[in-house]
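We close this part of the discussion by returning to an individual protein. Part of our work consisted of pairing the sequence of a single chain with a tokenised description of its backbone. What the numbers capture is local backbone geometry rather than side-chain detail. The amino acid sequence and the backbone structure tokens for this protein are reproduced below.
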Amino acid sequence: MTLRSSVCYFSNSARLAVCILLGAGFFLFVTHHAAYSAPSTVDSVSSEAKNLSKEQLEQEILNRSQRLDEINKQLSETKDNLKVTQTQRASLQKEIKNLESSISTLQLSIKGDTLSVEKLSLEIERLQFDITDIQETLVRKRDGIESTLRAMQKNQDDGLLTLLLRSDSLADSVFRVQSISHVQNQLSVDMETLRDLQAQYTEKLNAISGKKGQIVQHKKDLENKKYIVEDQKQTQQRVLKQTKNQETLYTQQLTKLQKEQQDIASEIELLDATLRAKIDPNGLPTAGHGVLAFPLAGGKSLMTQDYGSTSFAQYGYRGKWHNGVDLRSPVGTSIAAADSGIVVATGDQDKYCYRGAYGRFIVIQHSNGLTTLYAHLSKIAVSKGETVSRGQTIGYVGSTGYATGPHLHFTVFSSPTFSMGGSKTCGPMPHGGDLNPLNYL
């Protein structure tokens, strides 16, 4: 405090710059301590990566990026083939082929997640090099500023009049004043550089934090996809056991199943139609793009069935009404919450009516008067009562319930009309006044 007051008391020509610099003393203190408190890299970084040079890390990152591109290209081709597969006539061989395709796609996706974790870990290690460079520059710059400030403090203690009297000539006096002014200007530049370095330092730390979060999510996806692979294998074995690998037996079972599906669809539509009439428009958010986020990356381009009285609904459902939109994607694709909210229901209707209704589903109630339903999942990744954030992974695409192939069925309800009711054959059933999702996506 004494240093600041003594310097700020003297010459008007130097006072402003020096006072600004000394007033930033707390900033220098924080910078000094930040420079020595860099976090260690993420635990998952391999010991081999820690021993690599920055150039070697760059090459390893490039290698994994190229391999990821190859995997993503194959996954993209799988998505394109889904639409064609779903239009093919239902048969035992088609179902077995679809299950085999799902398992292969999942295993490919697992490789992708593994590579992503490795790549992110390498990127964190590379960022550590950048942080070390910034730390060293911060220390040098801080020490230089502190040294200059001490020299300026000595000059300022003498005062402008004393400085002039000590000079041998007027020219010498002008030179001394100009020198002090130059130092002040350089200090201002150095201080701005210091602030830029601090901003870069913070940016690198935030980047590390973000990549750590991505690693955590990829690891969760890995574990969940391994579970889904086993689930698909079990489904395959169940189909083969029930049909004894005979096409005629499968056709008989399919005919019976289709009748059950029609009965269940009629039950759902009978109640939902009544609830649609009870929707209060005043309780709904203003329609518009982005009110809800698309639950699958790729958005509308993935849509295979629209909302309402679609062509499929005309013959696929007795009620001739589709209460949501269908988005095709391979089994195991991550599903994101369309908005923040509370999970009000989850369930697996295949336990009550195998392949008869929504299969595995999630329902989230949002604060804007809307409630969203996500159906036909291969795995549920949240629990009832849990609070979720917009974009958070809540589950994975599947083909459980009444589904002709892997896809996400997405419904938007008016929250006041929504309820979980019982059904005649399918256990707990989501009901509500449905709205066109495309009005909000």
User: Anything to note?
Assistant: The longest strand covers residues 370-380. The chain has a mean pLDDT of 82. The CA atoms of residues 49 and 122 lie 7 Å apart.
